[in-house]
Amino acid sequence: GAGGHSRAIVERLGENGRLYGFDQDKDAIANAIDDPKFTFVYSNFSYISNFMRYYGENGIDGIMADLGVSFHHFDTPERGFSFRFSGALDMRMNARGEFSATDLINTYSAEQLADIFKQYGELETTYKIASCIVRAREQAPITTTEGLIAAVEPCTPKKDANKFLTKLFQALRIELNGEMEALAMALEQSLKLLKPGGRLVIMSYHSLEDRIVKNFMRSGNTDGIIEKDFFGRATT
Fold first, then answer.
1. Residue 227 burial class via C-beta count within 10 angstroms: exposed 0-12, middle 13-18, buried 19 and up
2. Closest by Cα among 78, 68, 122, 71 to 102
3. Alpha-carbon distance 74 to 76, whole Å?
């Protein structure tokens, strides 16, 4: 993102401290900190183990992840993250990816769309919503944010339109960027990367992320299953 957390950490690092800041969005490169103690890594944090190995780090003292999208994403119309603006239906956090939200909304089946809206948007009547989209794209491809809003207008509740659209856009964004998978991968890698006594800090913003993080903190795995030995003692 804008690098606010990173700057605060770098200011407090000792002489031998080092911070690696991960971001897969090319726009974040401009916010890289000009300090010898900071290294910008242009990548998704799900590859944290590979990059720590590349930089010769055998163990680290702390990991902090600020999940989801930034204000920059929401406030840049051409990125297509927000229904507040007119713009291309993009939603790619990593612009190097070839598959955008336009591709998703025009190629997924009604069943696939309904599953996404239920799992990642926690919406109701998801098949009805998906059917509205399929009918609209049969007339013309849905390529803009306003085109998507118009497609789901028959399914949009009048009193809670903003809440509905927020969940809809969230679901598409999470699916497109593989956010839940990336989070699970990063959490699992943290077990091997962190030194004894190291700190893991995750800033989550919705219940889906929160559930995965809490499961991991409680059990050491994202499913929340606490493994026990013969005597009923936790082994993780």
1. exposed
2. 78
3. 6
What is the per-residue pLDDT across 97-155, written as a single tens digit (0 to 9) for each?
A: 889 999 999 999 999 999 999 999 999 999 999 999 999 999 999 999 999 999 999 99
| H/E run at residue 5 | helix 4-12
Output phi, psi for 197, to 5 deg.
85, 0
Q: Structure tokens of 20?
A: 């690696």
Residue 117 class from Cβ within 10 Å (0-12 exposed, 13-18 middle, 19+ buried)? buried
Q: Which residues contact 179 (CB under 8 A, 6 or more apart)?
A: 67, 68, 173, 209
The H or E element that residue 141 is part of is none
> In the structure, what pLDDT confidence band is assigned to residue 230 with cuts at 50, 70 and 90?
very low
Which positions ≥6 away from 175 have C-beta within 8 Å? 104, 116, 120
User: Model-level pTM?
Assistant: 0.85
Top pLDDT among 12 and 73 is at 12
- Report the alpha-carbon distance of residue 191 to residue 201 in Å, rounded: 13
